[in-house]
DNA sequence: TCAAAAGTGTTTGGTGTACACCCATGC
DNA sequence: GCATGGGTGTACACCAAACACTTTTGA
């Protein structure tokens, strides 16, 4: 059975207060000209996660080491790729805001696209993005986003969207963008700072968000959140 | 790149109040004579989940349709199988208590093994089960069990371990076996019956557990639990 | 009548939510 | 001073843990 194994990436970021995903405009058939998740085949002696990290570096130029990357699921319907049997292992990557708008490596171009416009209920309205994503990438994107949303509740994952130092407001902005709901700034502040190991004060302050100076924090060490954050 | 794609199964049940997993005694090299998770290669025109269901039926004789089955993760380290490159998609199956003790299809034998004895901290003590599981199956088992433990909290998954009709005590026994902690029978009863959509009374009662007759319930329709069950 | 398990009531402390209020800066 | 966002205090509702207590069966 000749089977290809690919690693596809759901690379998420929060820009302008909205959740966005990195997509590639396909330069070859099938699905020429359509948007697709970045990815590629796993090499003969390459681990699955190594392949995902390599693709991530190729597409974003990010020296992947510090980027959060986790496996989401594997997709293997026999007819998911018209070229033949391809099993795709999907990875979720979370990157802090201002990663270079990306350099197209081959004849394809990449860009950040708002997730909300891709996941409209119903089959990706035509007015959204062309005719929707290539292959089964809409489903993969949906699963990846759902994973991210769920993990924000019980893990400190939201900090993976932030630069090394951030304010509580900025962290709240991540939650609001990913969940799509407004949160009470005061209760959020209390909750985050009282959950041990979530964030730790760096001592510095900033006024970049306007108003009274805000304390800067960096990620804590807790692997899970007790108690969890609750969705609006 | 010649790559084999396999589906491996973590088949869990609760028997005698303890969490057990179905293992196969390997009849061929490599790892001849060692315990391993049941599984096999995905066929050319077969979906991944179909392959998992087929293996499940072959190993347990269970007409898989009503069995809970979900994908857990995919394992693809280049050296995980000495025969060559094999990427394995692991599935978690939960079966109600008394599935036939299994009929060995080929030269191998299958049996239920207590999970606790396989996952002792440290590298599976020698006294546990032979020299531990074949391949990277100990890790796969660990991931599968962790998935099950986590999902009991926020989903009605525990009912997948139960027959069509069950008492609240029996359901509690599932939680206690999977989590490995005792739960207060009174608070558990209240919590389960008050969480809408978790279980629904069938009207009948039974005294099979001794004492006062207990109401029988069947699974409800809620996909998730609000509020979640909490681990002791 | 007793043991055993089912199920209910009640108390108590913790936690999430809503919102009033004060603080520290830029303009 | 005033607008803007940062951060704290507090009242109330709800929920979970602990456990006393009643109910209904089999032996």
TrEMBL record, chains A, B:
Keywords: Hydrolase. InterPro entries: Nudix_hydrolase, NUDIX_hydrolase-like_dom_sf, NUDIX_hydrolase_CS, NUDIX_hydrolase_dom, WH-like_DNA-bd_sf, WH_DNA-bd_sf, WHD_NrtR. Residues 2-135 form the Nudix hydrolase domain. Gene3D superfamilies: Nucleoside Triphosphate Pyrophosphohydrolase, Winged helix-like DNA-binding domain superfamily/Winged helix DNA-binding domain. Belongs to the Nudix hydrolase family. It comes from Kribbella hippodromi. This is NUDIX domain-containing protein. SUPFAM superfamilies: Nudix, Winged helix' DNA-binding domain. Transmembrane segments: none annotated. The keyword Oxidoreductase does not apply. Residues 199-232 are annotated as: Disordered.
């Amino acid at each position: 059975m000749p089977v290809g194994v690919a690693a596809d990436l759901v690379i998420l970021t929060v820009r302008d207060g909205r959740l966005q995903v990195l997509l590639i405009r396909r330069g070859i058939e099938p699905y020429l000209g359509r948007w697709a998740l970045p990815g590629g085949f796993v090499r003969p002696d390459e681990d699955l996660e190594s392949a995902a990290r390599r693709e991530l570096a190729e597409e974003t130029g990010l020296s992947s080491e510090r980027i959060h990357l986790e496996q989401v699921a594997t997709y293997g319907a026999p007819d998911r790729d018209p070229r033949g049997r391809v099993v795709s292992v999907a990875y979720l990557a979370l990157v802090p805001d201002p990663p270079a708008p990306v350099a197209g490596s081959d004849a394809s171009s990449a860009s950040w696209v708002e997730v909300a416009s891709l996941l409209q209920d119903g089959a990706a309205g035509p007015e959204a993005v062309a005719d929707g994503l290539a292959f089964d990438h809409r489903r993969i994107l949906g699963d990846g986003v759902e994973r991210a949303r769920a993990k924000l509740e019980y893990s400190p994952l939201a900090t993976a969207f932030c630069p090394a130092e951030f304010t509580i407001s900025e962290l709240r902005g991540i939650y609001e963008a990913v969940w799509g709901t407004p949160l009470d700034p005061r209760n959020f502040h209390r909750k985050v700072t009282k959950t041990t190991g979530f964030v730790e004060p760096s001592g510095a302050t900033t006024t970049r968000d306007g108003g009274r100076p805000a304390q800067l924090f960096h990620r804590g060490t807790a692997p899970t959140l007790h108690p969890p954050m609750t969705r609006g």
